[in-house]
Amino acid sequence: MSNLFDLLVAGLATGAIYALVAVGFTLLWQTSQTINFAQGEFVMLPAFLMLAAMHAGAPFWLAIILGILLSMILLGLAFKMLLVDPMMRHGVLPLAIATMALAIGIKEAVKQFFSAEASPFPSIVPTGDISILGHAVSLQSIGVLVVAILAVLGLTTLLNRTSLGHQMQAAAQNPTVARIIGVPVERMILLTFLINAFLVALASLLITPIYLAKFSSGEVLGQAAFIAAIVGGFNQVRGAIAGGLLIGVLDNLAAAYVSTQYRAAVPMIFLIAVILFRPQGLLGRAEERTV
Amino acid sequence: MKSTLLAGALLAFATATSVHAQAIKLADVAELSGGGATVGTNWKNGIDLAIEEINAKGGVLGRKLEVTHADSQSNPGVARAQVQKALDAEPYVLLGPGYSGSVKVTAPLAAEAGIAQIMGGEAAELTQAGNKFLFRTSFGQQSSMPKVAKYIHDEMKAKTVAVVWVNNDFGRGGRDVVVKELDRLGSKVVADLSTEAGQADFAADVGKIKAANPDAVFVYLNEEESARILKELKRQGVTAPLMGETTLIGQKVIELAGDAANGARGHVGLTTDAPVDLIKAFREKFSKKYNYVPDHNGLKGYLAVYMVKATTEKMGKVDPKKFADTLHGLTIKAADEPGILMDVTFSDTGDIDRQSFLVEVVEGKQVVKQVLPKVK
């Protein structure tokens, strides 16, 4: 058990990324009843946008800014206006299928225009270790964890402590009443999409130095985040965060203490158990449905 | 006027059809996307370069070579479907795939069609099943792993070894042979870790290696995963020497892993850094054409086509049914066919025998430390 601490830190760092991505699932679900099955590809794409900027000669810091801005335009604004809004009229299922098609489209486009091969990606966090409680912990893990926690804290502060956040929540909970009391619902929904795009771009920046930039890297990430969102509670931001951290840690502990061979199965088994015994997720809210 | 034009068009069509009919058709099925994209892309580019060269010099027995490329998506099921489709077009020789798992499921199809399959898979079992149509472009694990185990035991003086392998046909085959050989030599395997193809997070695996505290670590994963585990090994401060095979110290791995690749050692059947003039020339031509330095898969694809050329010229005719018979037991000398790069002999099982190299990554570059002679 001597390396339990290392496993926990590494698991929390990976889990924090899952949490960032999972939060996007819950945000979009709450505001527009959208399940975005391209969420994993949304994490993959910003890294390539940043790489493209660097190939064009931009320094890393500028590439990051450009990548985040472009992500917000493409994965926030354009995604909402060109795909979600037109498809929403036809219901949730056609929209979900459309996002699956979008995932394939993004993957194939990246493969076509960049490469099918993986590319290295610079890290915003320096390599090296620091000593915590006598354990050498990598700066990269700490950095990923800290940035992800700050992003999530920023988001929860925005949602719970600001007027803008309250308007967003009102728009999510009851758009009709929100409109009556003067909340600009459409603008709030758009803001949610932009926040999701910012979070996936941030996740991309943090995870790609470890996972490498590859057109298919969103598959694993999207799946893990989706599981995290369901496990935590699809309709609660705090649930998505808890689910992400839990899946990250569980994956590492399962690999170390159960079996590396069956590590991929452990989160799935956990997911099935949660669905069976607590369908709304660990921190989710049971929703009533009128029939 | 109209009739003249029509006659001209017919003549042009007839000429084009005739040239097309004379071309020797090769079919390539490779990992052009998915986890093996690096493997397949290098393999394909090597093939295209060789064909371009051969055709520029008049082709084989006066006939041009043509190749069709199909993407297996690094998936054995897709590979099988693509090979079936390729064989329906009755190619002269089938090239690829590169993944052992894909070779395993496609080899029976090529054998049934009586078409020789020149592939890149390294799993030991591939050529041990009695298939008379399967040929390697690289060493099988039964040839390379004993050399690896001997190096770990004799040169690294490792009494305890951690073995990390990818849980597919390629990884399992290598793991089985190396563990057996280490045991025979007296080095104890203190950690035996299977990992998944496409795995991103190696923190737990490296944690287990650290806990086992071995004298050496043998890493046998695909290229991208090799890069990820090298970074994680460095991140967690594992200082035991690292030994692998070609996939640990390939050019793409070095590019992806950066500093973390420094110090890793490996046995390679082929490397573009080999102190061999013909390989140096290949590296230069390839880099000029594709703007990057190829890994061993580029070499494998390239010499696969030259295997076709040398064998066909040995037969003096294009005969797909006799191709495999001719290649068995054939020695091709680089002096006679420079495209083969090194003197090579093919056994009755389709295995290959030639020089190989022990390589270490030093400051981001492969450095050949030893040249190992042909076995026979």
TrEMBL record, chain A:
<dbReference type="GO" id="GO:0006865">
    <property type="term" value="P:amino acid transport"/>
</dbReference>
<keyword id="KW-0813">Transport</keyword>
<keyword id="KW-0812">Transmembrane</keyword>
<keyword id="KW-1003">Cell membrane</keyword>
<dbReference type="GO" id="GO:0022857">
    <property type="term" value="F:transmembrane transporter activity"/>
</dbReference>
<dbReference type="Pfam" id="PF02653">
    <property type="entry name" value="BPD_transp_2"/>
</dbReference>
<feature type="transmembrane region" description="Helical">
    <location>
        <begin position="60"/>
        <end position="79"/>
    </location>
</feature>
<dbReference type="InterPro" id="IPR001851">
    <property type="entry name" value="ABC_transp_permease"/>
</dbReference>
<feature type="transmembrane region" description="Helical">
    <location>
        <begin position="189"/>
        <end position="212"/>
    </location>
</feature>
<comment type="similarity">
    <text>Belongs to the binding-protein-dependent transport system permease family. LivHM subfamily.</text>
</comment>
<feature type="transmembrane region" description="Helical">
    <location>
        <begin position="6"/>
        <end position="28"/>
    </location>
</feature>
<keyword id="KW-1133">Transmembrane helix</keyword>
<feature type="transmembrane region" description="Helical">
    <location>
        <begin position="130"/>
        <end position="159"/>
    </location>
</feature>
<protein>
    <submittedName>
        <fullName>Amino acid/amide ABC transporter membrane protein 1 (HAAT family)</fullName>
    </submittedName>
</protein>
<keyword id="KW-0472">Membrane</keyword>
<dbReference type="GO" id="GO:0005886">
    <property type="term" value="C:plasma membrane"/>
</dbReference>
<feature type="transmembrane region" description="Helical">
    <location>
        <begin position="262"/>
        <end position="281"/>
    </location>
</feature>
<feature type="transmembrane region" description="Helical">
    <location>
        <begin position="91"/>
        <end position="110"/>
    </location>
</feature>
<keyword id="KW-0029">Amino-acid transport</keyword>
<feature type="transmembrane region" description="Helical">
    <location>
        <begin position="224"/>
        <end position="250"/>
    </location>
</feature>
<dbReference type="InterPro" id="IPR052157">
    <property type="entry name" value="BCAA_transport_permease"/>
</dbReference>
